[in-house]
Amino acid sequence: MARSRIVFSLSLVLAIALVALVLGVVGGRATSSASQATGGGSGGAASGKKIDVVIKASDSSFWQTMIAGAKQAGGDFGIKVSTFGPTSETNIDQQVQLVENSISRGVDGLVIAPNSSSALNSAIDRARKAGLKVITVDSRVTTASEGFIGTDNLKAGMQAGKRMCELLKAQNKTSGSVMIESSVAGIQSLVDRDAGFKQGLALNCPQVKVTLQRFNNNDINTAASQVNDALTANPDLAGVFADNNTSGVGAARAIQDNNASETVPVVAFDSDPQENAALAAGTIDALVVQNPYFFGYQGVLAAGMATVNRIPPRDIDPGAVVADKKNMSEPDVKQLLNPPTMKAE
């Protein structure tokens, strides 16, 4: 089998250039020791700067991977990184309060994975007015910031739609209906994924239609119940697209409970131990995998640059990779499926 290649976007090439530039700005020592992970590097203008990282949810391994990347960047470049997160992605008020806490603590910069495209705007505006430099990751906001790091979710969603079509064609299905199992309504990254999935599906399998969409409020049991109900009510359901890891785990449980792995393909987003197990077992057929470690690492570097009046790139996209049972053991894919994790403080 030919070894799969990860294709990097132009913005990722710019990000590599950013690392080289930041080496000159912060001058920290590269290390992975625990003592260095909170800012033990030395030298450089940004060394000693305080950066708070606010993730979407403390209960998710995806965001714990982002924390691991952020902490490693702090250790490598001498930046003091503290990490926080609400208990769930639906707890927007708690995330707003965490941003307010960072303003009160007088940190130099913020890296935020916002749970809403608009609900954090006022807090972000106050942070910037107070002199904090703000980098947003994963989901965009509709107010100003110093930069954004995240997957082009429309493009990644199109990858998912194309793969769904390929899976359906392998079963000699050229028409039918597909379900989207989504996490939270109104989150721009999910809206873009779903739109991209529809576009990719329509481009490659124009006779296959998305006829059903459900929102599970980021709850695995709800996702499983919704997919189970869809399978029961629609015996001819052709496939399921799950747009985050919670939705993917729930969909996989429903597929297993209904013995439908041979007839109803599932394409899901992200990775965690449960999704990876489902991929290996065949209850998920493909995962569109992002790089949250990069979000955290590069987010801290960009914020560090901004705190010393360097201008980070406005927009960095690390791209996404489609993982399946055939390539999940290949080194480039395996490291994305099994990244390091670290819990919020």
UniProtKB/TrEMBL annotation:
Keyword Signal carried by entry: yes
InterPro entries: Peripla_BP_I, SBP_2_dom
UniProt entry keywords in alphabetical sequence: Signal
Ranges in a coiled coil: none
Domain annotation Periplasmic binding protein: ranges: 51-303
Compartments in which it is found: Cell envelope
Segments for region (Disordered): 321-345
Basic and acidic residues bias: start-end ranges: 321-333
Statement: the UniProt record of this protein carries the keyword Protein biosynthesis: no
Family classification: Belongs to the bacterial solute-binding protein 2 family.
The protein's name in its UniProt record: Periplasmic binding protein domain-containing protein
Species of origin: Nonomuraea recticatena
Taxonomic lineage of the native organism: Bacteria, Bacillati, Actinomycetota, Actinomycetes, Streptosporangiales
